[in-house]
Each structure stands twice: as C-alpha cells, then as structure tokens.
Specification:
Low-confidence stretches of chain A: 323-337
Mean pLDDT of chain B: 91
Strand content of chain A: 15-25%
Largest sheet of chain A: 5 strands, mixed
Number of domains of chain B: 3
Number of strands of chain B: 8
CATH class of the largest domain in chain B: Alpha Beta
Oligomer: heterodimer
Strand order of the largest sheet of chain A: 3-2-1-4-5
Distance between the termini of chain A: 34 Å
Strand order of the largest sheet of chain B: 2-1-3-4
CATH architecture of the largest domain in chain A: 2-Layer Sandwich
Number of helices of chain A: 10
Structural class of chain A: alpha/beta
Chain lengths: 337, 361
Amino acid sequence: MTGKDLYLGVDAGSVSINLVLIDSRYRLIEKLYLRTQGRPIEVLKEGLENLSQLIGPGFKIKGCGTTGSGRLLASALLSADIVKNEITAHGTAVLNFIPEASTILEIGGQDSKIILLRNGVVSDFAMNTVCAAGTGSFLDRQASRLGIAIEDFGSLSLKSTSPVRIAGRCAVFAESDMIHKQQMGCSAEDIIKGLCDALVRNYLNNVGKGKDIQPLIVFQGGVAANIGIKKAFEEALGQRIIVPDNFEVMGAIGAAILAHRKAKATGSTSFSGLASLKKDFTTKSYECHDCPNLCEIVEIRVGSKVKAKWGDRCGKWSSSIESLNKEKELNEGVPSA
Amino acid sequence: MVITFPHMGKVYISVKALFDDLRVRTVIPPPISKKTLEIGTKLSPEMACLPLKINMGNYIEAIKEGADTIVLTGSCGPCRFGYYGVVEKDILKDLGYDIEVVILDAPKTGHLNFINNIKKISGYSSIPDLAKAFRAAYKVTLEVDKLIDLLLYKRARETRVGEADRCLASFERMARQVHGSSQILDLTEQFMERASNIREERGFKPLTIGLVGEIYTLIEPYVNLNIESKLGRLGVEVHRGITLTDWIKTHLSLDMKYRQERKTMLAKAEPYLNLCIGGHAWETIASTIDFYEKGLDGIIQVLPFGCMPEIVAESIMPTIGTDLQIPIMTLSVDELTGEAGYMTRLEAFVDLLKQKKGKVI
C-alpha cells in the first residue's frame, strides 16, 4: 500500500518550474523540468496534468511541498502542506541522498547559492546579491550570441587549448570583453572556456567569499548540466565535484521530502489534489491607495473565492487571508526543544 | 518657525513630545514610503548611503506640509553621517528652498554653538523649561522602547499572527495625534496594557536572534524591510543591539553608571576590534559577543549598502562566528534590495538555527 503513496515537490523558479513525485522511501518516481516562460500558473497547470497522466490511477498524493521564488504562488494554487525557501530545500535533498556532502554549489537561472553542511545540518549559506553575472540566464544569452546551443556549451569548452581570460565581474563588462577577444581572433572554444573560468571565479569571489569549502562538494541546479563549468570548478578548487543524478530538480525533491515529513507528523495533507487545478484560477493585481507606498497587491482567486493576497508592505491584505498565515502555523507545529 | 526633522524609527514620537512641551510648532514628515525614497533618490548623489536619500525625501515631504526649519544632529564620528547636515543643507539651497537647517553637533565640539542652536529652536525657552522638556522627552523614549521590546517578545509568541504589528501600527497612528509628553506617556501606558494582553502560545519556546549593525538601518523599519516583524512572524524573539535609548544615553546624558556599562560592553570586542572606527562598527562587534554570552541562537547584521564602518565589521564577523560557533548572517540593504531574496535569506537562516538546535523543520 505504502508504495503507492506519493509526495509532490514543486520548485517554482524564475526560469524553470520543476515537479517531482517521490515515494515514501524518497525514490524518484517522476520528474518534469518545464520552462516558466513568464506564465507560472499555466505552466504549473500543464505540468500537473502531465504528471497525473504519467502516474495513472492507483497512486495517491499524500503531501505536497513548494519551494523557489514562486513558492507562495504555487502553494496558493495547490494548498501545499509546506512552503520552504530554496536553501533548506536543497540542503534537505542533498543530506538525504549524499549524507557525506559538506558543500553544495547551486547555480540556477537567476540566482546562485552556496550551502555548507556540517553534522547533518545546514551550517552556513550565501546567495548572490543583485548581480546575475554568474547564473544560467547569462550563459544562455552568451551561447545564443555566439550562435551555439547551450547544450553544447560545456563540451566545446573542454576542447579549449589555451583559454583566454575574460573579465567576469560584471555581465555587461564580460560581454564587451568577450567581443574584444573575438575580434582579436581567439577561437570560440577558448572564449567559452574563458567564460566558464570567469563565471566560476566570480562565484567563488562573491557567493563563496570567506566560506569554508570542504569536500565532498556537490554541484547542482540547471547550470550543473554544463560540464565546462563543472571542470572549471574542479580546477579552481582542486577537488572532485559530484553532480547528482537529478541535479536539476534537487530543490523540488527537497520540497517533496519536507512535505512527506510534515504529512507524516500531522497525519494528513492539505493538498488539494491534482484535479483541483482544473478549477478556474484568476490573478488580479492592483495598487493599494491607502498610503503613499502604493503597494502592488496581487490577488489569487479560485472561482469567486479569494485564495491569497500578497505584495503589501503593511500586512493588511496578506494577513486578512487565513491560508497565508502558514509561516507561523508551521513554526507552532514544531515541538520545542 | 515650524520645525521638522528626519525620520529614524520612533524618534519622531520623542521629538514631537519635546517640541510640543516647548510650545514650538512641528511638522512630522509623513511616514517613509516609496514616494519618500523616490524623491530622495532623485535629489541625492547616487553614491550616498541610503539614510541620506531618505532624509532628503523626508524634508521635501515635510516642507510641502509647511515646515520651514530643519533640525538634525551632527556627528564628528569618522563616517559619512558627519557630512549629512552640510550636504543636505547645500542640496536644499541648490534646489532653491528657503529653509533654515540647524545642525546640533555634540556639545563637546562647541558648547556655545550648541547652546545657541538649542535656544534658537526652542523659541528661547527658559533653562528650567528646557530641562523639564528634555527630561520628559527622555522619559518618552524610554517608555516607547519598553513598548517595542514588549512587542518583540509578544510577536514571537502571539497566537493570532499580526496582533503585535497591529498594536504598534495603531499606537503610531495615535501618537501623531496626541499633544505633549504627558499625553504621549498616557498613550504609551495604554498600549503597554494592550500589548501585555496579547495572547501567547503556551509552552512555545521561540528561537532568539540578535540584531546588530548600523543604527539607522536597525531602528528604521522601512529601511530594514521591517525585519523585526518578519522575524517575529517566523516565531523568532528579536533582541536589539542598539536602541534609541542607548543612543541618547551615550550622546546626551551624563548617566555615569551607563557609561561604565558601555565601557565594559565595548571591551568585549577587544580581541577583534579595540577602537572606534566610525559608525557603529565597534558596537556591532561588541553586541555580537554580548549576545553570544547571553545565549542567543544567532546574529543578523544589517547595514546600508556601502557603509564603510559596517563593512569592516562584516569582515570580522566570520572569524567571530568560527571562534564562538554562533551562526551569523549579514544583510546589506539599499533602495534596490529585493524583498523576495531578503525573505528567503531570513527563512533559511531561521531554518538553519532550528536545525542546529535539533528541531524538526
């Protein structure tokens, strides 16, 4: 029976929405990696429809967790059991599959993070601040500028014989520098390799600044697909880097694991079911004119019922909806030490 | 003469009480909003730190409501704040405003100047009247800080989320409407009672986090994206490294006992930093160690982007974290700070502390 109980993890990121289903022994049953394309609600709906077809009847989803920058939105749509930040989700997933890991390097579409694990818990972390120079979107853009598929990016960089040095501190300057090197006659392979090195240098100097990077090092997130970056990390750190099997959906797996723990602790799930997304969801945003802040309030409706509201600095609208008081509720569910 | 002054957290409550008692008219700048920041960003040098930009916004908004005199404190500490008054005065002059700017530098840098300035802005009140008004305003500061501390305690434990925030919001709304220190003190007392009646989750032991860093950023919720409320709603009891009361005791009062305590406190920073390098860097390091000794679970340092003294402190923090085995996180804020990323960091930090204490997340 228990083999048929599944747990859904959703990582609603800026570039991709990842959905996974795991069983109660945390084996991956299904995974979907979908481009967000600026339409998270539709993509999420389509994804869930695909999932329900893939698993067929006989399985039951016993819990749901969401993470990523769109975690609140996803949770509002799905009535998730748990809403978690990306750091905790990634940390949980790695601790479960690679318990001996000490460092996680994670590079996604819009942000990058480093997570240090010690004694089986997250002990320190950092995220990139305002700069996207070292993330997937930037690589994407450079690949298309050079006219190569992002999938070939890594293997091309491995062919480089004498990498050029690219100024990688800032995406804009990196781009001008790349053009400069191109005009000097450097080969595309050498430039690409130079870009991988620059990105890694930038990551280690900013995100990884002052962090005690110990082996075992795990590299995940969408950019981990790029063997050029992996190689550049190995060279810079002088360590072997492990890329887990499901590197691109580790956040979603973490969310699913947390959902399982939560559902087990409470003995029930608030998840509204895969079919629930067939209902009519509408979002509306408006400016609140009650004070000069003019916050942009987003309202999520299911049919005619307001399911969630957010965007207000003062909390007047968001705290008017019961379901959003989850943060606190989650904490209160925790037995005190 | 209609006086206005820049916002810094709840400072306006004490300052209003002071001028009310002296029968000097004041305009409290409207609460800091996106608009304030927009005005300020437009009028300030791009490289200036965030507080200056918000000050400028406050002035312009207050001038619109009829203020003609600006009062602010000066500083001879080696940080950019020392130039705020003069720079702001120049910007306003260049914009063509006919505004008097009175900069109150610490008395020790020129007693006569200080006294003259006080005389001017107090409408030439008598010395006993002045002394009485200052004492009353000080009392207001103490009481308001007590209310804030009580709400910090309650927010972590409240059964109905948002109750402490609502209590504080209505207190602030009403504080603008009442007149003079005695009415404000009455109001504070009422709200102390309302706050103590907030129902607590029984048996809930919250995590404890100490906030350290630059004073303006710590005290002004608009600037720190209301970190106290965000952490409180995550079930964290927040301890403040710097309060307005501390600032007044340090700079304006002759409380010898406090001075001794402060010396002992700052001495705690000794292995890492043993002198004032401007701003509140020394206090940041000392409070971090003090919070560790008090057994707090974690420390968050908050600074305005580009704040030199705090950047020095930031570079020391990882060493303290390793030496004392206490989790420390640094958050730097400016007008470009995204709220989503900020919240993610806070949540992740709280999860980290929970895991460290062996709690299930």
